[in-house]
């Protein structure tokens, strides 16, 4: 009878230690999951900010402003336009030649 009581006492201690270990691991996993959720929210916020920044950088008005200011470019006007007549290669093509 004494051995049976000692056996059950040891079994109870092992079970209690197993329970404490399981709860400790559960708390660690909960904390880690919470940290990962915070990191995911932070990354999502960064992603949205980068999308807005990309949209801002790609705006036509901004590109036009940078071209005028930094590159000193100007819009074309009829008096500054040069019209070239003739074939692009410099030699006129006859109809039917060079085409399949």
As a percent range, the share of helical residues equals 55-70%
What's the order of the H and E elements?
HH
Q: Roughly what is the average pLDDT, rounded to an integer?
A: 86
Number of helices: 2
Taking all Cα atoms into account, the compactness measure Rg is 39 Å
Largest sheet: none
Query: Which word captures the global form?
Result: rod-shaped
Low-pLDDT segments, ≥5 res:
96-100
Q: Roughly what fraction of the amino acids lie in strands?
A: under 5%
State the total count of DSSP E strands: 0
Distance between the termini: 107 Å
Question: Nutshell version of this structure?
Answer:
This protein is mainly α and 100 residues long. It is built from two helices and no strands. The protein is 66% helix and 0% strand.
Would you give an account of this structure?
It is a single chain. This protein has 2 helices and no strands. The longest helix is centred in the first third of the chain and has 56 residues. The C terminus is likely disordered. The protein has a domain of 33 residues. The radius of gyration is 39 Å and the shape is rod-shaped. By secondary structure, it is mostly helical.
List the helices and strands and how they pair.
Elements: H1 2-57, H2 60-69
Which key terms come to mind for this protein?
100 residues, disordered C terminus, mainly alpha, 2 helices
